[in-house]
């Protein structure tokens, strides 16, 4: 059988929210890009297929990062003593302005992609900057690496520094050029409409972007209700809209095509109802929400209401690309939210958060983030032999120990859409 | 000049709470165990002294971990979906019981010490278990490694599983044996009186321990007001005492000798006043407090009141030995506390938390945690060349980037009390 191979190891994934499926010393049969089956005992018909035997290693789905700003990578770990609005002015906007220089972009973007690879992120939804050329470059670099990404040229035509602002016309024109050129250029790297957030986009720009989203059938990503000052500012800017979400909605940017909204900390009941009705994906970014003093998003309530949720690193408001770090931080803030909500919003288990970091975010990419039949084979091979283990642990416990105490050194191999991915080149 | 050497590099430390002292390409003159001076330009009289030139590396004081359970290291990263009391019963007590076996103790304790070294912790205040022999072994292993520690044989004579409980007589006898044998055995490793917490120690035991503390002039460490159920239980056990702290106080275990209390999340105003009056050191363990859903300690209020505070990893309720991880988590929860307190309790800056992780906790060890004259020379040499740096950064920014995005791979050398420490042996 051509194009078929088998991966053997201790397989663990979450088909269902909050429940691990475990195949100790099991087999994943991969045909082309996709999983053909997962087995405890290999069926007779697959006996002659090539087996890649990872021995006692753990095999998990690749991590999906549903929200990050590629152009902020140079600022990682810096300036995390501000709230959102001053942080944007003082640290973030000056850094993003550098991406007018394609050489700077190549250096930082390639380093970012190498590090996403390093930390086991196989799929990502990415904000670039307003700059057309470096955004195209970022897409080319992702494609070259083998990683999968939605990449957005950022749109900003108001309330932005003069060194980082576009005219409405240019913003729309450049966006459309990218859509025309990149919508079908790559299989694993796609454009996504990316208005920065309401404060930096006029209603005219938003409506134009809504039209482009429909015309080219491309998804949308933006920010929603992250910070008190931001929400207040949006209310001032749009007294005609009943809330923040409805600004996007009235521009056709809220779920008419698949849509990710990052943060959603301060959404009101009407907004939650709208998010549910329009099937908005929420990118939960706890590190960012802690670092910028934004608060704790009511993620348990979103999930109970059936709203899809994935996890995001949100660098560089988040300080770590590691999705295991994001899982741990998600667990921690969910524990604090449980206290804050007088024990109403139940804390998340490791299995629930693992689901959000794989299949939860993966849904935005299609059949991604699980080892069920027909899912694209995105996988990480975890060698935990260096971790502090002094007794026999179950596969679930070994995964938990990796998540809480391991790092990139424990990730031995990465697969995306059926292909083994080697270390991307840094320029 | 004999016994003198000079360390050269980018020196940064916090003499004052919240303020970095920086000596770019500076010199630290070390004589014997202690810092003799820090200079931007080396004075003439030191021109013939041997210089260890660390080039562009950053040199910082070693980290002080003011609270950790060595005997829980095997459980690191496991079972973090419980509150304190069930977590103790299901995960922690069964693990601690294994330390009756000296061979198991040697294996795990030596791995722990190697990893403390790896993460740049140069001083630690450590809980062992109730077992006398493995506690002595832990002290011997610390001494062999060159790391500095206070190590406590844990006392528990009630409300504990039958496989992990002592009689009052044995508990006191074994504790005194250790004090006699170890009080003067090592210079950098000392015993510390360690009643686990009020629920597991009768008043008779506590009073005996208070007497031993005075008799041998040794310090005390324990837990205080970590969790609601625990505080309620203490109130039931001691209706005669007006609060949790006063139980320790009435036994002579609350600041009559130098005393560390871990957590202090739920202390009341009377307890805060008593802590201030008795100069209690608070070990702030944010990872643990998040992982076990305990809450956020009001650390800003303690510091404003002048109560000494250090940081603790509190493994394995905390999941990481890395004190940089603890600094980041401390910043994050302080931001959330700022929101929770209606913006009264100001968030902590990196310089403030760096102080707590070095000089703040270091004070418990004497003149430790700074590069001021007369301080013991505990230092880490940080090579940040592997981090995502794409422009010229200040030394403060480089330190912040190391704290937020670096790890043990960036620590190139470690010094404790004037001596370079090599990787400890794992048994």
| SSE-based structural type of chain A | alpha/beta
**What is the top-level CATH class of the largest domain in chain A?**
Alpha Beta
* CATH homologous superfamily designation of the largest domain in chain A: Metal-dependent hydrolases
Oligomer: homodimer
Number of strands of chain A: 17
Strand order of the largest sheet of chain A: 3-2-1-4-15-16-17
| β-strand amount of chain A | 15-25%
Measured distance between first and last alpha carbons of chain A: 39 Å
Can you summarize the main beta sheet of chain A? 7 strands, mixed
Overall number of domains of chain A: 2
List keywords for this structure.
zinc ion binding (chains A, B), homodimer, TIM Barrel, 427 residues, Urease, subunit C, domain 1, 13 helices, four-stranded parallel sheet, seven-stranded mixed sheet, alpha/beta
Notes on the structure:
Two copies of one chain form a homodimer. The radius of gyration of chain A is 21 Å and the shape is globular. The mean pLDDT of chain A is 97. Chain A has two domains: 4-61 and 369-420, Urease, subunit C, domain 1 (Roll), CATH 2.30.40; 63-365, TIM Barrel (Alpha-Beta Barrel), CATH 3.20.20. By secondary structure, chain A is an alpha/beta fold. In chain A, helix 4 runs parallel beside helix 5 (203-216) and helix 11 (323-340) crosses helix 12 (350-362). Chain A has helices at residues 84-97, 102-118, 132-145, 168-182, 203-216, 228-237, 244-250, 269-277, 286-291, 299-304, 323-340, 350-362, 395-405, and strands at 4-16, 19-31, 34-39, 51-61, 63-69, 121-127, 148-152, 154-155, 189-191, 194-195, 220-224, 259-263, 281-284, 309-311, 379-382, 411-416, 419-420. Chain A is 36% helix and 23% strand. The interface between A and B is large, with 49 and 49 residues.
